[in-house]
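Postdoc handover notes: sequence design on the structure in folder B. Input tokens:
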């Protein structure tokens, strides 16, 4: 089979069917490429063309999305073995048992969902997905007499939904939750454990998969994974390393991975404290929102190419539900007025060109963005950027996606 023909594009509103189709494609020797049904058809077609344009190496088994705009999609390619090597650790973290059913509330476009489904299939677990975007009581108690799930593999905000339901009196047979995608608030973990749930969290990256896990004593590297911190940056040696990243030109590259004689990094900052890994965010200032990693430069490039925008600054604002909220600060082009109508047009154009996770949820206009000596927009934190913004009562050009 030609390498380009091995790609199996899959997306749809029935997430259970999407995950099943991805697993069947993989079993048939094809490489599943799972998209988001909310993307425009043009965006999806462009992504598929990009991946197919260069084909995939014969050892590739999975293609999963990481951050990237519609104009420059980035897809991580990896082998089946790179995931399978961590399955025993995942099974132990979940305390998974024969006959268990696992709830996967993460959207199938996420590598977390595909990994969870692949782990379940390989270890004989059943799989179920929520009926909607947010967990509801019926997702825990079961539908049509099917019974509820025993396990869940999701994100901190999905754990929050779960705990809120349990606090409200929803019954469940769920006993264990594995949490990834962002830092788990210890208070939330304590609330979950108060309901008798086993809670484990992990730290990783799309290109490295599972790096370290925490069952209550801090993040400790998984068996077979070695970690070092050099000048505040985390380096990892792991058999879970991906093959590489498909760039905008369709060629396979190292992507964000930097390699030093088998030790690799994606730029995460961290420290080691008595053997416990303490992450400190991405060195490239990436935004972690709802389990997705958003690179500000990707979003800024799209926004800066929209009529009426001279430049854009994208930052992450703290958000109790999403972890971080993507925020955009727009400098008008000379002679342009970014009023409410203009901002609606910009938001619509951005929505067509950006992946869902990349779309700003917080918009502000600024008279002028500060520049470095070379003329580039200077990096600011969320507080500094907000201090520059035109206040809502001074301009109608502010809104939420």
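Designed sequence:
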């Amino acid at each position: 089979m030609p390498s380009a023909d091995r790609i199996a594009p899959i997306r749809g509103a029935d997430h259970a069917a999407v995950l099943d189709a991805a697993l069947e494609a993989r079993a048939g020797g094809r490489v599943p490429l799972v998209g988001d049904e909310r993307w425009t058809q043009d965006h999806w077609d462009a992504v598929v063309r990009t991946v197919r344009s260069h084909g995939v190496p014969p050892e590739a088994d999975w293609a999963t999305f990481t951050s990237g705009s519609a104009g420059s999609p980035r897809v991580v390619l990896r082998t089946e073995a790179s995931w399978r090597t961590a399955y025993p650790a995942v099974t132990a973290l979940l305390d998974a048992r024969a006959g268990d059913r696992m709830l996967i509330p993460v959207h199938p476009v996420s590598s977390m969902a595909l990994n969870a489904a692949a782990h379940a299939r390989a270890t004989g677990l059943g799989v179920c997905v929520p009926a909607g975007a947010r967990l509801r009581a019926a997702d825990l108690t079961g539908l049509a007499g099917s019974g509820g799930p025993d396990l869940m593999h999701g994100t901190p905000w999905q754990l929050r939904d779960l705990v809120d339901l349990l606090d409200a009196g929803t019954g469940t047979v769920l006993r264990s939750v594995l949490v990834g995608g962002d830092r788990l608030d210890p208070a939330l973990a304590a609330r979950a454990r108060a309901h008798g749930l086993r809670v484990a969290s992990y730290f990783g990256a799309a290109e490295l998969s599972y790096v370290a896990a925490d069952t209550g004593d801090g993040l400790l590297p998984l068996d077979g994974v070695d970690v070092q911190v050099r000048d505040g940056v985390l380096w990892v040696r792991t058999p879970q390393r991906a093959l590489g990243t498909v760039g905008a030109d369709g060629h396979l590259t190292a992507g964000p991975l930097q390699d030093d004689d088998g030790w690799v990094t994606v730029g995460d900052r961290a420290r080691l404290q008595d053997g416990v890994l303490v992450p400190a965010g991405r060195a490239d200032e990436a935004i972690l929102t709802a389990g997705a990693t958003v690179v500000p430069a990707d979003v800024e490039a799209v926004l800066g190419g929209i009529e009426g925008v001279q430049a854009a600054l994208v930052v992450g604002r703290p958000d109790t539900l999403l972890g971080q909220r993507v925020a955009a600060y727009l400098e008008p082009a000379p002679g342009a007025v970014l009023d409410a109508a203009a901002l609606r047009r910009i938001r619509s154009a951005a929505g067509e060109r950006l992946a869902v996770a990349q779309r700003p949820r917080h918009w502000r206009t600024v008279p002028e963005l500060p520049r470095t000596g070379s003329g580039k927009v200077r990096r600011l934190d969320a507080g500094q950027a907000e201090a520059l913004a035109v206040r809502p009562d001074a301009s109608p050009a502010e809104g939420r996606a």
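Context for whoever picks this up: The longest strand covers residues 309-319. Don't rerun without checking with the PI first.
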